[in-house]
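Margin note: ligand = calcium ion.
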Amino acid sequence: MNIKLLILSLSLMSSVSFAQIVANQVDGFEDNTPQGWTIGSPTLADILITTPADGGPDGAGDGYFSYTTTGSSNGGGSKCIIYTRNAQWSGDFSGQGVVAVKMDIRATSGDINLRIGLADQDSNSFPVTQMVTTNPIVITAGSGWQEVTVPIQPSDFTVLPGGSGLTPSQVLSSVVEMRILSNPNASWIGESGLRVMDLNDITASTTLSTNEIVSTDEFSISPNPATSKLNVYLPQNSKNASISVYDVLGKKVYSKSIDALTSTSVDVSNWNSGVYIIRISSDNTTQTKRFVKQ
Ligand SMILES: [Ca+2]
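Resulting structure:
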């Protein structure tokens, strides 16, 4: 390669821009890739990170991200933390109006003390000022998929020692790396011990509301947990509605057309104990809820 070509290719490389955060973007894991989320060792990431095609909160066809730590106290893959760098979770969070990260999360082995970490970069693209959300959100092992909202406004963060001294506001406008981690203490590193962290629909939210979707048009279920009968109350004006129920593996275990009714019940007495997803589809809307069969 001659010098001119070398210079040309270098200048082309430097002009390649990374993906940047966009308001309301969603990592849904429907493409069965980790969408840039990784751990320190790419080799271990290939083993410890999986992206099942089914079994997310919406059941069949809802792919999700799953990271299982090694359970060791030290070494690659031992810490409960994943990150993206110079990818879709970098850039100007404040400029995009992003005030929270919403996600579906499930802990199937060990409680998760959920925190979001953000870092800016120096001129060599190394993260320098690092900060994590001050208050962990505890996801109890075995509690099934939970929809959580992690506020990420400046006052929500603790800046970790050793950085370049930027304020949370400054970091939020020039993010290089984002982390999702479990640690009872404010730390840039995840805690060790065996954990399985499942994630879905990681969303750059411009609202702090946890009830965006809740309205008078929402369906409801009771009792939850259910032992013999699950009552389903439909939204008003439901047309051509149907109920589908999926188990945690995404297998459809029940379906029924419920047109022209306002409530119905499902006999669950012979179902296996566990978590199920119930989906109501109608001309107007599709909604899902989780319930437990005891
Ligand atoms: Ca998904």
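The chain has two domains: 21-205, 220-293.
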